[in-house]
Amino acid sequence: MKTFDYVRPATIREAVAAASDPGAAYLAAGTNLLDLMKGGITGPSRLVDINRIPGLDHIEDLSDGGVRIGALVRNADLACDRTFARRFPAVAEALLSGASAQLRNAATVGGNLLQRTRCAYFYDVASACNKRAPGSGCDARGGDNRLHAIMGWSDSCIATHPSDFCVPLVALDAIVEIEGRAGRREIPLEMFHRLPGDAPQRESVLEPGEMIVAVRLPAEAARFAGHARYLKIRERTSYAFAVVSAAAALRVEGETITQARLALGGVAMKPWRAREAEAILAGAPADGALFHRAAEAALADAKPSGDNGFKIELARRIVVRALTLAAAGTPVRLPALPASPFAAVSGAVIHA
Amino acid sequence: MNISMTLTVNGVKRTIDLDDPRLTLLDLLRERLHLTGTKKGCDRGQCGACTVLLEGRRINSCLALAISHDGADVLTIEGVAQGASLHPVQEAFVVHDGLQCGFCTPGQIMSAIGLIQEGQAGDDPERVRDGMSGNLCRCGAYQGITAAVLEAQKALGATTREEAA
User: Fold this and answer.
1) Per-residue pLDDT for B163 more than 90?
2) What is the pLDDT of residue A243?
């Protein structure tokens, strides 16, 4: 690991100043960053440790009915916050389907948004990777790429964003609060991550020095609490990244869906909101035929980036299954295997 | 660059003079404090052998930068027994053969102590297996591990919380 200067600012303003120099990186838990530094994939010359900055670790109910989640809130604390999990069950389910209990106790909200791809060629410093070394090429093209992107990829990069948490967040219109030298700004999470295009090294809209300070969910997001699920296909049932995942959230009156939210994970370099599918679902009777039509629409633009055409059909089926589970109702208690298609759902459902 | 930091490890306050900010909590425990019960398996957060309790919560010490935890309280496998009497989780691992080679065992036991304190698994073996999935055992002692965790939880009289996690 390359050595670095270590600084521990006491305020956001000090942190932004320290992180604005080239080569600086923010340190929260470090569960992804330290791994990347050990492998020589990244080598910051300065670590700006934000863990002692007060006020960044609160889950705050807002007067307008929304919730504000500080950037340093740990994954486990958010998922196990009873009020939060009851209002945003698909977000809690996504969090609990990610990583391991040890990592969830450490990993933060801000770090989850900024985690790097798990593309094996990005991790292997002997491979060509336009994300790690711009202009060097992409060994994933024509390589072992069965888990790579099927949406929004480019000739220079076919990696995916690995987050579970971001998938229901983007479905529920989450907002990212950012602070930088020019002050505070906010942006919808849907616009936060950048598709690779010809500059895959730029993964988000953050400018040098800018820091995520919080993520907000609007009050409206809680109206889906009675019919919200996250479903995730993994190559093993626990402690693995998604091959494909989906967050589905519905509002149902009688047999009719009045409003729908749908997003996909594991398919692109950003959590993928499926707005065309949402439009098909809204106002229609909740049945299997409708869910199949929505799935077709959600994957209409999908294209294999290599040996991964199976992910398109897999994603369609996951969408149908996630919508079916959401329509059946959010279970009062999450299944023993969160987000697993193998989990038996038993017992009562929440009536929100 | 020398940095002085403190850690309370197994109830004892330790002052450490850090000559390198790159030190992980795992390497600090093993190489500087010679507490080699905590194991280095993958060193990348994938195997769980390095699990310790940091401020009472289980974490992977290989992915924690030591300097970032200046002043923290750490519990390692060396600190769980009371003299010659084993911790109930250790006892249960012995009774249920929750190990074969033993390399992953300190991490398994620290993770199990963390899991029981979290109180989310109840007496459901599936929830225990999911909650312990961050600890790999290449000997495949998983059945014994699950049985040991369930029995230790009973022995500790842990309260189970039934609400959605």
Assistant:
1) no
2) 98
- Interface check for B127 against chain A (CB to CB < 8 A): the answer is yes
Domain B3-79 has CATH 3.10.20.30: yes
Task: Determine which of B5, B22, B145 to mutate to test the interface with A (most A C-beta atoms within 10 Å).
Answer: B22
Give me the torsion for CA of B24, B26, B31, B32, rounded to 10°.
70
Residue B86 CA to residue A297 CA, distance in Å, equals 59
Partner B, chain A 67-106, Cβ-Cβ below 8 Å: 76, 79-80, 82, 85-86, 89, 92, 96, 99-103, 105-106
| Separation between Cα atoms, residue A288 and residue B146, nearest integer Å | 39
Pairing state between β A24-27 and A59-61:
unpaired
CA–CA distance, A75 with B57 (Å, rounded to integer): 13
Q: What CATH code is assigned to B88-155?
A: 1.10.150.120
Q: Where are the domains of chain B?
A: 3-79, 88-155
Complex-level ipTM: 0.95
Interface test with B, best of A52, A75, A100 (most B CBs within 10 A): A100
pLDDT, tens digit (0-9, with 9 covering 90-100), for B43-60: 999 999 999 999 999 999
The pTM for the full model equals 0.96
Beta bridge partners of A183: A180
**pLDDT tens figures, B60-101:** 999 999 999 999 999 999 999 999 999 999 999 999 999 999
Sheet holding B3-9, edge to edge: B12-18, B3-9, B73-75, B51-54, B57-60
**Cα A15 to Cα A55: distance, rounded to the nearest angstrom:** 14
How far apart are alpha carbons A26 and B70 in whole angstroms? 17
- CB pair distance less than 8 Å for A336 and B118: no
Alpha carbons B39 and B30: distance in angstroms, whole number? 8
Q: Do B63 and A96 touch (CB under 8 A)?
A: no
> pLDDT band for position B160 (50/70/90)?
very low
Domains of chain A with CATH codes: 5-52 (3.30.43.10), 225-328 (3.30.390.50)
> Does the CB of A329 have a partner CB in chain B at under 8 Å?
no
Q: Is the pLDDT of residue A246 over 90?
A: yes
A42 in contact with B, Cβ within 8 Å: no
pLDDT digits 0-9 by tens, B121-153: 999 999 999 999 999 999 999 999 999 999 999
